[in-house]
Amino acid sequence: MLNAGHGLLFTLGSEIQIELNWNHYQAIMTEKKYQRYYDLAGKASSENWESVKKSTMCGCYFCRSIFPSSEIGEEDWTPDLHGRTVLCPKCSIDSVIGDASGIPIREDVLEELYQDIFDSNDFPITRTEHLLIRPVLKQDTADIFEIRGDKDTADWAGVPCIESIEEAQEYIVEHTEYGRGLSIVLGNEVIGLIETYTDRELPYDSLFLGYYMKKTHQCKGYMTEALTALRKKWTEEGEEIPMLWIIPGNVASERVAAKSGWTYLDSHVVDINCLNQYVDFYE
Known about the structure:
It contains eight helices and 15 strands. The strands form five sheets. The protein has a five-stranded antiparallel β-sheet with strand order 8-9-10-11-12, sandwiched between helices. A three-stranded antiparallel β-sheet has the order 4-3-7. Strands 13-15-14 form a three-stranded antiparallel β-sheet. It folds into two domains: 2-117, no CATH class; 126-282, Gcn5-related N-acetyltransferase (GNAT) (Aminopeptidase). It is elongated. Mean pLDDT is 83; it is low at 1-11 and 20-29. The chain is α+β, with helices and mostly antiparallel strands.
């Protein structure tokens, strides 16, 4: 192809290469444009109570909301090693930055931070009509203690009861490290937990799933909504669908399993909290 204005001769291959080079250049420049914000965001969103309170406008790079600092309430924080970390008043995640940090509070910046930090397989997020389902975080400690520390819930689920805040913190570390724990969030409150695990003592070589709901939110359809969404997502992405096991007589869990797409397979005697008893398996 002849470009008469510049007297240059380009082949089709050269044009393609130039376009590829230009696209690569643009990608590099875009990355450089936001790189300084990536580097600042971690510090700006941790132990940031004082900084955020000095800001005029704030943004959350998780839910990408932009709001005045005056909307952050006195209860919107979680303790950290050397100070208080702000929680987003919209989604309750510790991803708030204020304009006093030097990071511009704009939609494009928040979107780039979200893509870089959260939008990956390391932090899977599922949204439903009413719920946000995301990995357990350290600010969930009190809610996890309430949910897994309830003896009735633990007995019906056939799992050990969490007996202290320290045990709840250990639960978060373990389930974050292996990506096995998910919190079910309604508004700004963690109302339930979903966890996946393997157990060589069980009769199937499969991934298993456990689920627990706060008593105040049981029998409202939230667990069915969460499990249905996850099963649909796993199916669409070609991932393994975890099996369930339920202690006979746990009618509420049986209904949730059936409504969410699991079907009864068979029953086996297994060791549950040092007791041999029948449990029902679902796939």
